[in-house]
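Quick one, T. Sequence first:
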Amino acid sequence: MLTEAGIKAAIRHAPTSGKAQTIIKDAGPRGAGRLALIVRPLATRVASEWYAVYFRDGERRLTKIGAYPDIGLADARQKFRDEYAPTILRGAEPRNKFARRLHRRNARSVTVRELFEAYIKHLKKEDKSASYTAERVLLKREDSAVSMIGGDRLACDIEAEDIMPLLSAIHARGRVAMAHSVRSWIHSAFAFGMKAENDYTRQNEAAKWGIKHNPATAIPTDPNASCPSNRYLSPSELRAFWLWCEQNESRSNLCIALRLMMATGQRVQEIVRMSKAGYLADEAMFEWDKTKNGLPHSIPLPRQAVGIMSGLRHNSHGLYFPHHWRPEEHALYTGPNKQVHIYIEETGAVPFVPRDLRRTWKTLAGRAGVSKEDRDRIQNHVKGDVSSRHYDRYDYIKEKRAGMLKWQKFLDDILSGKIKE
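Structure tokens:
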């Protein structure tokens, strides 16, 4: 891998190395060539020159780009990515400046890395909880999609066969759900690229990327990978986990977040994003200005949640669950997952994930006598009918409060041990 320190060391040691030349190369996708610096000791100086190294008909070939330090590392990389790599990928001759001009990467041709980075930026801008997982899968993992497909390849050139080896390798390791998830993220990233270019509401922002089709569409989904979970906690399991969280709050305040999830049935991301601005203590309510479905949401809090909130302190940025290193940001949405794993390891409990707590609330609140309609409203499950979407602007706070009172009493009985199964 080319680095400034590595380049300077190679130049410094060239006269005494005993080698006719030293070659340092950048990494890159198969078939796109490599940027290389060739260092040669001469009689009176050390020559350092940039080359595009590639193969044609089984032979290694080199095309000179320029000299170092006349062209610095950053500029050499940019020139290689913009002109030489696209030309090599298309099978054209990079020595021919007209071929390089024809295949030069311009505003209509972004790389796979640039596409994925733009998609992650979009998710973060929309404050989507999935941004953390998407960033790891597409960009940050050692076996990330960008490293396996080739980050410097043009996004508009990617086909299904370029993605298949990555998915096949993951599936072969027995990670069926993971392969399904990676396919889904790649599909979403390319769908974003296509839509962003054609979004007439944001033409000043949209890049002209030339992505004409989604390569992941041709790859069928695996029906065995998306089976919905049926796991929910029984009353005795809920009580045991509640008490454990209560006893372990000093280890992590996300144990408090998990208790709030159990008490209210809300999503992980909505609990983790709770802030001072949303808590209406006098009315025992909490409000979110925007939720997963893009709509505002408000709920009356049961007595158990009010008790938790009364002892919870926000930081100087108004956040109840701030990020450990960046206090101006909320904690990661994956944080509660870690606490659940610790609980399972320490107690030997039947495995579950934080999302199952939401299913638990839905199920047990039904046993408490809360109607399906009121449970849907409390959990912010949007109605799909025309009336709800376009006309009904009633807040249903009265109905939500009545439902929460039923749940509050039922939760009291669970926590006291009166209801066990």
